[in-house]
Amino acid sequence: MTIATPLPDAELPKPRLDYPPLLVLPVLALLALPLVGSFPTWVTLTVAGLAMGMMIFIMASGLTLVFGLMDVLNFGHGAFVSVGAFTATLVLLPMQGWMQADSVLMNLAVLGLAVALAMLVTGALGWAFERVIVMPVYGQHLKQILITMGGMIVAEQMIHVVWGPDQIPLPLPASFRGVILFGDAAVEKYRLIAVAVGLVVFAAMFLVLNRTKVGLLIRAGVENGEMVEALGYRIRRLFVGVFVAGSALAGLGGVLWGLYKETLTAAMGSDLMVLVFIVIIIGGLGSVGGCFIGALLVALLANYTGFLAPKIALASNILLMVAILLWRPQGLYPVAKR
Amino acid sequence: MLSLTGVHTHIGQYHILQGVDLTVPRGGLTVLLGRNGAGKTTALRTIMGLWHASRGALLFDGEDITRAATPDISCAGIAYVPENMGIFSDLTVRENLLLAARAGAPDAARLEWIFGFFPALKKFWNQAAGTLSGGQKQMLAIARAIVEPRKLLLVDEPTKGLAPAIIQSLIAAFRELKAMETTILLVEQNFSFVRSLGDTVAVMDDGRIVHSGPMAELAEDRNLQQKLLGLSLDAHQ
Lengths: 338, 237
Description:
The complex is a heterodimer.
Chain A: H1 20-36, H2 39-70, H3 77-92, H4 96-99, H5 104-134, H6 141-163, E1 168-169, E2 179-182, E3 185-188, H7 189-211, H8 213-230, H9 235-261, E4 263-264, H10 268-283, H11 288-308, H12 313-327
Antiparallel strand pairs in A: 1-4, 2-3
Chain B: E1 2-11, E2 14-24, E3 29-34, H1 40-47, E4 55-60, E5 63-64, H2 70-75, E6 78-81, H3 93-100, H4 108-117, H5 119-123, H6 134-146, E7 152-156, H7 164-179, E8 183-187, H8 191-195, E9 200-205, E10 208-214, H9 215-220, H10 222-229
Parallel strand pairs in B: 3-8, 3-9, 6-7, 7-8
Antiparallel strand pairs in B: 1-2, 1-4, 4-5, 9-10
């Protein structure tokens, strides 16, 4: 069985960590420090940026996997953000007593229930959205854009029908209000909680993608779905699962964002989609790690420019995307494709 | 083991397979020859269900797989090594093989058997597959196809672009598989490689099988080689 001819098994170059995209974040933060001028203000802006970035990551992570796995451009993803936030009000508003009680446990219990309901409803909606709206247009990008945008408009109108056309105020739970002082720097408690939730979601996704067979299948499917099928796995089932999970995460993102803004509008999801698409393009389509870095970059830059030069704050993310794509045309962490 | 009867395949507006009749006997190595664009890769992809036949019938082990989905065809016992190898670059060697072992973790004894002719895979077990050399990637692609016993292997041009030393290791691997009576359908253009391995041969041209028979017959008949392939096998040794 042993072969006479020696095999070419000489040492290979060790795979190196692609660190330059990781350095962009601290470089951006450090560059902002002298421009902001005040260290406490810089800390406040940085934590606000990290919190915003984590929430955008939660909303965008499912969308980037959906695109990577099946080349589906879902412009209706924002609908899950809005529906998630509004669904949470079904628990949060009637239980305002628990929300405003001076008990962390009562606050967490009602918030946990609201998040669970929001994720359940948006997950189920995602399943229906994939079956009814996305499935008939696999492989047809133009139709995908048109029909998923149509789906989002219908979802927004349904929110108007159920909850009315007005904004809905959504106060934070009592124990999440206020600030924590780090020296002279004041950091809102809720922003720290958003950062913690974002880190937990990222860690969970990292573990699932790297330590489970389903995660291996998702990573392999993003790279070469056809080969995954040739190995005997049904990639469409996998895709439906990812679509449902991504929709549920968008619902979670919607609840977090709604509490962050303390106001809900039916268009909140569609308003966020520009940022979400910038994030997944910057990160590299299909890359969860890239999506995480991209979300933090976009949010930090938005906060710094919002403070330093509010007039260019809106354009800053487009400029960031242009700069990143000039540097790395496939995004920060491009996925190897078939 | 496998038979294609009057198989036609269209890709968009192109009519690639135009009535392919092919039989792959059980336990042997069948070689599919033909010039570029003859339809060899399309034939393998049609068998695998990656493109569906627009007409004709495909039977595998007595079952009709003409309209079957790719995962069902794979689960029926057909393994596929595509021309581009189809390895998952971002996954390690271990993870690539783990995915191919549908029944659970790969069998340790079978892995050792594979490492016997592909030792590089053991050495780079935890290395990202994308960092392997071209030859090592081909070894991984073949190892992935045989990490669990399969009834039929479809292998598309495994020697393409590989160094002679690696081709020798592939010959050893295919000989071992043949000795275990694994049925193989091999698409190849390297005549000296297939001449030493093939039991039967089929030649394709313009989407049809224009010749089929024992490999020895084609290897010994220079006129037939000239007629079917436009050159002599001897010129490629």
